[in-house]
Specification:
This protein is an alpha/beta fold. The chain contains 9 helices and 8 strands. The chain has an 8-stranded parallel β-sheet with strand order 1-2-3-4-5-6-7-8. α3 runs parallel beside α4 and α8 crosses α9. The longest helix is centred in the middle third of the chain and has 18 residues.
């Protein structure tokens, strides 16, 4: 059985002391590939350095909405130049909108749209962060489609939306990725969304080091090996086997990110 964790942050301090052991555990759990996300351009070098040590790691480059104030006149070129320089770059992001912790709506939208343009130019999918902003993200994406006449390939990562919102993004052609939050006891809305996503659009992730799933929720650090618990819980919600979920989400990740494993 093979699993792909489609969203990790291994360059964070939480993994600096024992990444080799963490890797050994994800290999034992059946994780054969990982997609490393990016918060801001200052991370590019550290993520690349990890990828040079770990052959099963691909990565994204981009700017998180909560760091939108770091966007400047050089950021777009910086992202494009780096993405073109390394074949392990498989996506742009994470990008999107977050109105839970910030309210700089217009600036976040500008940064979001700028990164959509980069992804379009480079023919790469996008990794979208969306928190308390589903209707606004939908509006930006639909506006993009209307203006450009082209769909956006990508994933709604660590998805926490209601089934109706989930359907919005499925209709726009997006993949939906579930993290450890789908295992939480009171996450009924997320669980309902996980049960309804079509098999060919389903992805799983840890978003480590955050959001450790049940039964590891009490641990301070999440890690890629725990994506297996996410897969098990999604399988139970959908009345499917773990092997079926593993195979389908692995195939979906390979298709979206053009991975060869």
């Amino acid at each position: 059985m093979q699993l792909i964790d489609t969203h990790v942050h291994l360059n964070f301090e939480a993994f600096q002391q024992d990444l080799a052991m963490v890797r050994s555990r994800w290999q034992e759990a059946g994780v054969v590939h990982l997609v490393h996300s990016c918060v801001e351009p200052s991370e590019f070098a550290s993520i690349q350095a990890i990828a040079q040590q770990i052959p099963e790691l691909s990565f994204a480059v981009g700017l998180h909405p909560l760091d939108a104030d770091k966007w400047n006149s050089n950021t777009a070129d910086e992202i494009k130049t780096f993405a073109r320089s390394d074949l392990r770059v498989v996506a742009i992001g994470e990008m999107g909108l977050d109105f839970y912790k910030a309210d700089n709506y217009e600036h976040q939208v500008m940064v979001f749209e700028s990164q959509l343009a980069i992804a379009s130019e480079l023919d790469l999918p996008v990794i979208i962060h969306c928190r308390d902003a589903a209707s606004s993200v939908k509006e930006v994406l639909r506006k993009w489609i209307d203006l450009k006449g082209e769909r956006v390939r990508g994933v709604m990562h660590c998805w926490g939306g209601e089934p109706e919102e989930t359907q919005w993004f499925l209709d726009l052609g997006f993949y939906i990725s579930f993290s450890g939050t789908v295992t939480f006891k009171n996450a009924k809305t997320i669980q309902s969304s996980a049960a309804m996503v079509s098999s060919d659009r389903l992805l799983i992730e840890t978003d480590c080091p955050f959001l450790a799933p049940v039964p590891k929720r009490g641990e301070r650090r999440n890690e890629p090996a725990y994506v297996r618990y996410v897969a098990e819980h999604v399988a139970n919600l959908r009345g499917e086997t773990l092997e079926t979920i593993a195979q389908q989400t692995t195939e979906n990740a390979c298709k979206l990110f053009r991975l060869k494993i």
